[in-house]
Amino acid sequence: MRLSTDRHDRDGAGLVYVYPVLSRRSGGVSVGVNLNPDKTCNFRCAYCQVDGLVRGKPADIDLDLLGTELRGFLGDLLAGAVGADWPDPTPRQPSDVAFSGDGEPTSSPRFAESVALVATILDELDLRPQTRLVLITNGSLVGREGVARGLELLGRAQGEVWFKLDSATDEGLRRINDHPGGIERVYSRLAACARACRTYVQTCVFTVDDEPPTEAERAAYLELVRRSVRDGLGLAGVQLYGLAREVRQPGAERLGRLGAAWLEAFAAEIEAAGLPAVTRP
Ligand code: SF4
Fold first, then answer.
1. Going by CA atoms, what residue is nearest to atom 2 of ligand 1?
2. Domain range for residue 205?
3. CA quadruple 111, 113, 118, 122: dihedral sign
4. For residue range 210-240, what is the model confidence (pLDDT) as tens digits?
5. What is the pTM for the complete model shown?
6. Which end of the chain offers a freer environment for a tag, N or C, measured as fewer CB atoms within 10 Å?
7. Does residue 248 sit within a domain?
8. Total domains present in the chain
9. Residues with CB under 6 A from ligand 1
10. Ligand 1 atom nearest residue 164's Cα
11. Tens of pLDDT along 157-170?
């Protein structure tokens, strides 16, 4: 079974919905749950690593198969039946089970049911709270009834959300995420998400044509951080990511990695603005 920090292969375990990733952050195994095996997303981020990304809504999923795959994979993982060639020592208890994958998880018609199912399986196997339940989302569908129900279930299961926010300007959201909604709508969704669950902001930073994010972009971002503190959103912090993996979208050749020092300096500004920040160069 393939497992690495660089290649997040969705077929790493040969399953439809479940895949293992070695987490750079925890040094342990993160188990991904992919509700978008058809590679559908309502965003088209400039840095997206999904090869063959399709704009649109995902097909329905087979919830029974998801349950079978997750129970089977976690059972094998805990029993040491998979990963003989993984780096030693790789802890057998996963650091998290994360809704992530090849598209926007909350766009799945089974999102709320999937959250309930995964929380139940973690409890069956007595894995919580050491194994966290995580949703990685672009946050654009937070206002939908089914998504709100899923977030409520996630909150009840002490899960957490990593909410994508790559720019605090309307122009930046269009340019980076191809998202026309505007920052005010994003901010109100972020606030709603933080009311339901422990929420981190997840931000990807990179160069375009060798230029880092502009002064105006950074200033707008820092003002949004200060505003979130003033408004009492209760955000848990910021995760500042560099481009760690291969970009699979048109224009990829224009994007480049920022050095660790750039990320550290921006993280220090975010902390000064009021939120804890960690970097993943
Ligand atoms: S939200 Fe995620 S899956 Fe969708 S385009 Fe952006 S990076 Fe890719």
1. 103
2. 18-280
3. positive
4. 999 999 999 999 999 999 999 999 999 999 9
5. 0.94
6. N
7. yes
8. 1
9. 41, 43-45, 48, 50, 53, 103-104, 138
10. 1
11. 999 999 999 999 99
